């Protein structure tokens, strides 16, 4: 998609120009329900903005959205930025303590939320200057928190808009104005408030629109939280920019519900985290091959494997509705074995790499580029520069730095933190390490803080070992740590599979079985690893690791090795 010469890099411009281009075409709604058109969506946004202005919202005020995905979420967001106010999206999975911290620090004027989130703000109503608006029309009789339902707000807003249409005037919103403040849910423990301007977000959406042709009317099925920049930019702003339709899955769908939604919506694109594809690979693909002697034998040859993988790939596309032409994968690293399968299966995927601080995408695609290497995140996207700082002379691995119009303004109220990662020339130190290959593909090896330096001076990248551990069918997730100069692995098993394999056995026999497969895995794994990366001990973990919104393990919680087995 070409960017027009007179484009203004604001979210308001994107909405206005899309309404002008796509008018009555379907824009946004819940899956399996009638969507709003671009005209209707725009009209509702203008009405709500009018109402918020009447409530006293001014340019620069901060308004929070603590809610699950919906078209109402999108309307609330665009009405906030229409006024030059700042949207503060809050991940719906955050605990009450984090929600309280964000709302207090941001001095939020108005809150959009839902019935599922309302308990988190029982103690906070007095901190909010304005109303609490429920996007799902939740309104418990005699509830602790007094609320305004979204339907009532919209009805009043439509009346206001009709009365004020001729005199309506909103503040001028500039490209450099802050559109959002988002709290990172990183793996390093300290959550930072990232300030993203209109230009940061829109420039990233325009760059993403060049990765492949997006057809007007193509359906984007949304399954990730809009309060994360990954879904916000690629699954929300991008389709609206290109005249596509967004269908929200509702709460996190099970595979059966996802299949049903896909059969109905026949999505063109879905953005997902690696966990979605890795689960499908381990639960649907591997068992088909492992349980068939013929398929197992055929997969031992390159030709046979490709033929079988392509047939399985076609079935996967059918699972996703038969029309899928883009599965965007990001938020965490994809297991290389799973990616190799997707490539050989001719499955239409693109891997992306980015951070909240870069709105988010830095590298990915473009679609159809045959030089993209498996295990890489593709090329830096249009407008973004990437360099490797202090590379190792042998491997070329160093810290990844990036620059471009999508790089954040800074961290809210944290000059020291901003200066630590953002240079005066605009280069963002990502905190990740990697290298660029001869074709310009970016290969990310992990977080700088996660690299383990062994006694002999060799660097070990724990994420690479974890990927190998996670390929074992009975492993759900794993974590590799250093302890007294040796590497240890903690493994959370798939207890459904373990239960099937030990059916009818007593507790002692189950324990012995678990110890046996852990040790067998350690021996097999070490045969695939260089000496410095070999695992000394493997432990069973009996509950899932605590993770971020994009399913990365919060490693800092386990650095002290205080884990319960």
What does this structure look like?
With 565 residues, this protein is α/β, with parallel strands linked by helices. It has three domains: 11-197, 3-Layer(aba) Sandwich (Rossmann fold), CATH 3.40.50.12780; 274-449, ANL, N-terminal domain (Rossmann fold, 3-Layer(aba) Sandwich); 451-558, 2-Layer Sandwich (GMP Synthetase, Chain A, domain 3), CATH 3.30.300.30. An eight-stranded mixed β-sheet has the order 2-1-11-10-12-13-14-15. A five-stranded parallel β-sheet has the order 4-3-5-6-7, with helices on both faces. Strands 16-17-19-20 form a four-stranded antiparallel β-sheet. The termini are far apart.
Helix and strand topology:
Layout: H1 11-22, E1 26-30, E2 36-37, H2 38-54, E3 62-66, H3 71-82, E4 86-90, H4 96-106, E5 110-113, E6 132-134, E7 147-149, H5 150-164, E8 178-183, E9 193-197, H6 198-208, E10 219-222, H7 229-241, E11 245-248, H8 255-265, E12 269-272, H9 274-290, H10 293-298, H11 302-319, E13 326-329, H12 336-344, E14 349-354, E15 361-364, E16 385-389, E17 398-403, E18 410-411, H13 415-421, E19 428-436, E20 442-447, E21 452-453, E22 459-460, H14 462-470, E23 475-483, E24 486-493, H15 495-501, H16 507-526, E25 535-540
């Amino acid at each position: 998609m070409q960017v027009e010469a007179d484009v203004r890099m604001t979210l308001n411009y994107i909405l206005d120009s899309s309404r002008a281009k796509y008018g009555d075409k379907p824009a946004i709604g819940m899956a399996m329900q009638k969507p709003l058109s671009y005209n209707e969506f725009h009209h509702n946004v203008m009405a709500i903005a009018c109402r918020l202005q009447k409530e006293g919202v001014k340019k620069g005020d901060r308004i929070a959205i603590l809610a699950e995905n919906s078209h109402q979420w999108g309307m609330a967001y665009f009405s906030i930025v229409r006024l030059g106010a700042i949207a503060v999206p809050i991940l719906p999975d955050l605990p009450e303590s984090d929600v309280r911290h964000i709302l207090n620090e941001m001095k939020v004027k108005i809150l959009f939320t839902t019935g599922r989130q309302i308990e988190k703000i029982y103690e906070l109503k007095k901190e909010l200057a304005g109303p609490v608006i429920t996007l799902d029309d939740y309104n418990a009789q005699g509830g602790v928190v007094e609320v305004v339902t979204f339907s009532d707000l919209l009805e009043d807003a439509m009346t206001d808009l009709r009365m004020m249409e001729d005199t309506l005037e909103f503040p001028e919103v500039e490209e450099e104005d802050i559109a959002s403040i988002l709290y990172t849910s990183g793996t390093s423990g300290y959550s930072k408030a990232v300030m993203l301007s209109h230009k940061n977000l829109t420039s990233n959406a325009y760059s993403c629109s060049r990765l492949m042709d997006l057809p007007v009317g193509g359906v984007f099925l949304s399954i990730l939280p809009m309060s994360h920049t990954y879904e916000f930019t690629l699954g929300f702003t991008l389709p609206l920019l290109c005249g596509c339709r967004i269908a929200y899955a509702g709460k996190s769908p099970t595979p059966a519900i996802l299949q049903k939604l896909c059969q109905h919506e026949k999505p063109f694109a879905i953005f997902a985290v690696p966990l979605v594809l890795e689960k499908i690979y381990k639960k649907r693909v591997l068992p088909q091959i492992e349980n068939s002697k013929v398929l197992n034998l055929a997969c031992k040859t390159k030709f046979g494997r490709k033929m079988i993988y392509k047939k399985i790939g076609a079935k996967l596309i059918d699972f996703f509705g038969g029309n899928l032409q883009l599965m965007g994968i990001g938020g965490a690293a994809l297991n290389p074995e799973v990616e190799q399968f997707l490539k050989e299966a001719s499955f239409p995927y693109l891997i992306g790499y980015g951070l909240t601080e870069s709105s988010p995408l830095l590298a990915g695609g473009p679609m159809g580029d045959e030089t993209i290497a498996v295990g890489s995140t593709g090329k830096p996207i249009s407008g973004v520069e990437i360099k490797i700082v202090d590379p190792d002379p042998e491997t070329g691995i160093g810290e990844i730095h990036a620059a471009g119009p999508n790089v954040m303004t800074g961290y809210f109220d944290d000059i020291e933190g901003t200066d630590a990662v953002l240079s005066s020339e605009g280069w963002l130190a990502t905190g990740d390490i990697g290298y660029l290959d001869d074709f310009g593909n970016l290969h990310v090896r992990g977080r700088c803080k996660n690299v383990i330096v062994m006694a002999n001076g060799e660097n070990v990248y724990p994420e690479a070992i974890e990927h190998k551990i996670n390929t074992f069918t009975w492993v759900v997730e794993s974590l590799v740590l250093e302890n007294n100069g040796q590497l240890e692995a903690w493994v959370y098993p798939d207890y459904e599979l373990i239960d099937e394999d030990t059916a009818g056995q007593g507790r002692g026999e189950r324990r012995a079985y678990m110890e046996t497969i852990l040790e067998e895995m350690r021996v097999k794994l070490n045969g695939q690893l260089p000496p410095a990366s070999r695992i000394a001990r493997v432990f069973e973990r009996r509950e899932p690791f605590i993770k971020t919104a994009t399913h990365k393990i919060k490693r800092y919680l386990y650095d002290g090795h205080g884990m319960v087995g």
